[in-house]
Design goal:
By secondary structure, the chain is mainly α. Helices cover 68% and strands 2% of the residues. Strand 1 and strand 2 form a beta hairpin. Helix 2 runs parallel beside helix 12.
């Protein structure tokens, strides 16, 4: 009698076969639950949801939508998938798209439509591996001196990433994607490496595995929006490699997204900082421009002032002040002008680099406006320099004239002292004839003074001459003028009348002076003539010098004659 293979097995073999079948069913159950949660997480924005993976995937519509979401590409449209032929067509479109991305072995549209659980889970795992885990790529340097690198597979790359993240933590050794994760410390270490505020790792112990797993899954879901693809009891009893890899890959994707967002945030922060820097530079440019133009205009007004001191010492101080402006004050402002040029150029370079409209200052704040104001300043500076030099030469010429005046004054003093001696000799006069001779000498002195009065009438009036005429301008301490000359002449005539009265007496008799000379009344009024004469000599001497200079200046040349 024929017997089936199961009937021919002994109890031990049947137990082992049943155990393997049970493990397979358990693995299928865990993978189905994990993959269903993973699919629902990605289909959430579309409004679709998978309740039974093996049934909902048959019509191809769910698979079609999942591939579009996770790949970011558009697939050909599919039908409603009511009839089998429509379902096969829809699934065929999805498999054709996947075949361009990965290699599909022994999977056909009929297997999916017929609900082959093993092939359906294999297809979903292929999608997870291609579009999520395979994005993780690490390069390991094996020969540093040659700078060559070996690219690891997706599984190895994910495992290496986990090892690097959990290396500093105690009681964590990640060697695989099953037993290394049973106590839950590896999950908590991953979360703590990026978000220390979520996990108090020091308080965790390997013995409390289920609590560790639940704490890690809850923190990831509530704080990081990582879907709860695993249940603690599934990991503690029989950890499934593909399920754990799927969950760890989801953690990696979330961290990578956080890193990209942080990087984007830093980039945005840098952009905002750059824009604020540009705005601050524009405000600083306008402020510095206004201050510099204000200084240029004020300095130009000062340089256009032509009021000079009427002495060599004063004009020398004026020249020193001008040199200080040229050597100290102006160079610093010239440096500021150069900085304004550079600032304007730098602002426009930053605007171009950040795709902003070029900086165009308000009216009157352009670089060309500053250059125009600076040209006016340079012109005023050159004109002032020429005016100072001209004034200096003029005063220097007057100084020489004053020196000649001083020399002649000393000569007149010598003459005057001689006159004092002559007049002083009259104290010894006792006879009328010598007295008459002394009187005649004094009268000659008076006539000499009166003869020089006409020179004062020819003294040029400075108010009627060109200011550029050097001979028409005299120092204040030398100029006495016509008024002073006339006053001195009147005083001279008055005092001379007294002298004559002394000589002639009240009755006009010269002989009566003998008695007055004997009592010393003769020499006092005559001696008083000396300072009057000294004033006249100074005026006459200055008028003579100025008149000679005018005659030389206005004398026609041979060509004019």
């Amino acid at each position: 009698m024929w017997k089936s293979p199961e009937q021919t097995m002994d109890p031990t073999q049947m137990f082992e076969k049943g155990r393997i079948r049970g493990l397979q069913e358990e693995r299928i159950r865990v993978q189905k639950k994990t993959f269903t949660k993973w699919i629902n997480f990605h289909l959430k924005p579309t409004g679709m949801q998978v309740d039974d993976l093996f049934q909902d995937i048959k019509n191809g519509r769910m698979l079609h939508q999942l591939l579009q979401v996770i790949s970011g590409e558009m697939l050909p449209k599919v039908s409603r998938g009511v009839m089998r032929i429509q379902q096969l067509e829809n699934v065929g479109i999805c498999l054709t798209f996947l075949s361009k991305k990965v290699t599909l072995e022994n999977i056909g549209a009929g297997d999916i439509v017929d609900g082959n659980q093993r092939l359906i889970l294999g297809l979903i795992w292929t999608i997870i591996l291609r579009f999520q885990i395979q994005q993780i790529v690490f390069e390991e340097q094996v020969v540093p001196e040659k700078e060559s690198a070996v690219k690891k597979s997706a599984k190895e790359s994910l495992l290496l990433w986990c090892q690097r993240q959990t290396e500093p933590y105690k009681n964590v050794e990640v060697h695989n994607f099953d037993k290394s994760w049973q106590n839950g410390l590896a999950f908590n270490a991953l979360l703590h490496s990026r978000r220390p505020d979520l996990v108090q790792y020091e308080s965790l112990t390997p013995e409390n595995a289920e609590w560790n797993l639940r704490h890690a899954f809850d923190s990831a879901e509530n704080e990081l929006n990582i879907p709860r693809l695993l249940d603690p009891e599934d990991v503690v009893t029989r950890p499934d490699e593909k399920s754990i890899m799927t969950y760890v890959a989801q953690i990696y994707s979330t961290f990578a997204k956080m890193k990209a967002e942080a990087k984007s945030g830093r980039r945005m922060e840098n952009v905002v900082r750059m824009l604020m820097s540009i705005d601050d530079s524009e405000k600083k440019y306008l402020s510095l421009f206004s201050d510099l133009v204000k200084w240029v205009r004020q300095k130009t007004k000062e340089l256009n002032n032509r009021t000079f001191p009427n002495s060599l010492a004063g004009i020398q101080k004026h020249l020193d002040k001008f040199n200080q402006y040229r050597n100290e004050e102006k160079p610093s402002k010239y440096k500021e002008k150069g900085e304004l040029h550079m600032m304007f150029h730098s602002i426009n370079v930053k605007c171009f680099a950040n795709n902003r409209i070029p900086f165009y200052p308000p009216e009157g704040h352009l670089i060309k406006n500053l250059e125009a104001e600076w040209d006016v300043l340079d012109k005023a500076e050159r004109e002032l320099e020429r005016a100072i030099v001209k004034e200096y030469l003029r005063l220097e010429s007057l100084e020489r004239v004053a020196e000649r005046f001083s020399r002649k004054e000393r000569l007149r003093w010598a003459w005057l002292e001689d006159m004092w001696e002559i007049i002083g000799d009259q104290e010894q006069v006792r006879d009328s004839l010598p007295a008459m001779a002394a009187f005649q000498r004094n009268e000659a002195i008076l006539l000499d003074v009166q003869a020089r009065v006409s020179l004062f009438e020819q003294t040029p009036d400075s108010s009627k001459h060109d200011p550029e005429d050097l001979t028409a301008l005299t120092p204040n301490h030398f100029l006495l003028g016509r008024e002073s000359a006339n006053d001195s002449l009147k005083r001279c005539e008055y005092k001379m009348g007294r002298v004559i009265k002394v000589f002639k007496g009240d009755d006009g008799d010269v002989r009566s002076t003998r008695f007055k000379m004997a009592h010393g009344e003769f020499n006092r009024p005559v001696v008083k003539l000396a300072p009057v004469f000294y004033d006249g000599v100074m005026i006459e001497n200055w008028a003579g010098d100025v008149g000679a200079t005018n005659e030389q200046k206005h004398e026609p040349t041979n060509q004019q004659k």
